[in-house]
Design brief:
The chain is an alpha+beta fold. The chain contains 14 helices and twelve strands. The protein is globular and about 85 Å long.
Length: 480
């Protein structure tokens, strides 16, 4: 009983949207129908856009059990949709005569001169066809650690360090094939700012795009105090609040863009009206493998193209530690849909369904359980089962300590990276309670047994300490 209650206190939360609603009620009803199953979503905001009108609605509660929905003026984290700003600005810079599409990036970032990445062209960076790795290796390693520990690991990188890292890196495969690269998008943004003789990328994008389109609530956080104070916290799988990251360098890739649905509606309207700069960026011009674009892997300058039921649409999505977003535009029909949610479940299918009315076409089907969740579940259950068996069969007290630590390790890993967008947290509680019961049986068996076997004291204590340390580390990740 006590074990079950303790497990319930720390169990992963299976996010559900809740009844909160704001804005256009008719659109809200269509959003709920498009969602079908709200597991993994917390709060969603949807903007339905034409050249002359915008309809906004929020469905679901910002916080579990709360009554407030995401509003049109609520600050939200945009993610990689920011890359489309660079796409438009590249096409605009070409039209201005500032750059050529085939210019090597080292023309504008001379620290890359003579390196493999320095020879990659601007249009290759804008279409992810330059074989540029996703991030510098140290950043990639820190980023993975940050995902596990729910900590910000990008804020310390500086531009010169990133350029020096890029100059020393080999290409990642062959040029000409679409391989998504945040580093490539970052280099493109800083190269365009340099070509325009702007002091930094933030000044450049504000001058060329945000100010002309009246996107007055869009900002790029380089420090934590630049994050809007009233911004809702995103939620990770299992319900943990996500850390709000900042980055002075990776802003062109979307690392720390804060905006509002109203601002993104202005952006989409300018594209539909033909008043945004650099509109040729949306035109599909390259082909390549791109898993995120099922059925039609064409790409322009940071815009992907998808064909659904004979309709051609341009799109880009975004994902941060606690937000997901999707902007999809049908220029021929004069319609666009923007969807953002403060959880990690992708919103792409919702946006595609609302724009096209197709429930099971390319891009409109739900993403299956992520491979990482399946792998974590498999590893965790093997650890838990093995530890439970070892606890029941323990012949010394330290054997029981090691087995208990192994069970805690498995349970903590499962809590951090399990499939809680698809499975109820009650499953974790039941497994944790059963594991605790097995450990209690083991305790009853070893109460009168020695701490360790003769002549194995040092090894037994070392194993127990290491097992407890590993379990404590992963447990702290799960509770952070």
């Amino acid at each position: 009983m006590i074990a079950g209650l303790l497990a319930a206190l720390v169990a992963p939360l299976s996010l559900r949207g809740g009844p909160a609603t704001s804005g256009d009620l008719d659109l809200a009803a269509r959003v709920r129908a498009a969602v079908e199953d709200d597991r993994g979503y917390q709060a969603l905001h949807v903007s339905e856009i034409t050249p002359t009108s915008v309809r906004h609605t929020g469905v679901g509660s910002i916080d579990p059990g709360g009554a407030e929905a995401l509003g049109a003026a609520t600050p939200i984290e945009l993610g990689s949709i920011t890359k489309t700003f660079n796409g438009l600005l590249l096409a605009d810079a070409i039209a201005r005569g500032e750059v050529a599409a085939t210019d090597p990036v080292s023309t504008y970032l001379p620290r890359l001169a003579g390196s493999p990445i320095g020879g990659v062209t601007l249009e290759e960076l804008a279409s992810h066809r330059g074989a540029v790795p996703p991030f510098p290796p140290p950043t990639m390693a820190r980023g993975l650690w940050g995902l596990l520990t729910n900590t910000d690991q990008l804020s310390g990188d500086q531009l010169d360090w990133v350029l020096d890292q890029a100059a020393a890196m080999p290409l990642f495969g062959g040029r000409g094939t679409v391989q998504y690269s945040n580093l490539g998008a970052t280099l493109l943004g800083w190269a365009l700012a340099s070509a325009a003789q702007q002091p930094d990328w933030q000044t450049y994008v504000t001058t060329r795009l945000l100010t002309p389109l009246a996107m007055t609530h869009t900002r790029f956080a380089a420090t934590r105090d630049q994050i809007p104070l009233d911004s809702p916290r995103g939620r990770l799988v299992g319900g943990r609040q996500a850390v709000q990251g900042v980055s002075p360098v990776y802003q062109p890739a979307g690392s720390s863009t804060w905006t509002t649905p109203e601002d993104i509606a202005r952006y989409a309207q300018a594209i539909l009206r033909g008043t945004a700069p650099g509109l040729p960026a949306l035109d599909p011009r390259f082909a390549g493998e791109q898993a995120a674009s099922p059925g039609d892997p064409r790409v322009g300058y940071h815009w992907f193209t998808l064909t659904v039921a004979g309709r051609t649409v341009q799109w880009h999505n975004g994902a941060t530690a606690g937000y997901t977003s999707m902007l999809v535009i049908d220029r021929l029909a004069g319609r666009a849909v923007f969807v953002v949610g403060n959880s990690t479940r992708p919103v792409d299918p919702v946006a595609i369904r609302l724009l096209t009315g197709v429930a099971d076409g390319p891009g409109s089907t739900d993403v299956p359980m992520p491979v990482i969740a399946l792998a974590a579940t498999t590893v965790a259950l093997v650890l838990i089962a093995g530890a439970g068996f070892a606890a029941y069969r323990a012949r010394t007290r330290l054997q029981l300590v090691r087995a208990t630590a192994g069970a805690l390790l498995g349970l903590s890993l499962w809590r951090v990276a399990g499939p809680w967008d698809h499975a109820p947290g009650l499953l974790w509680i039941l497994v944790a309670a059963a594991t605790a019961a097995t450990v209690m049986l083991g305790i009853a068996r070893v109460r009168t047994r020695p701490w360790h076997r003769p002549r194995l004291a040092a090894l037994s204590w070392a194993g127990a300490v290491l097992a407890l340390a590993a379990a404590g580390l992963v447990l702290s990740m799960g509770l952070h």
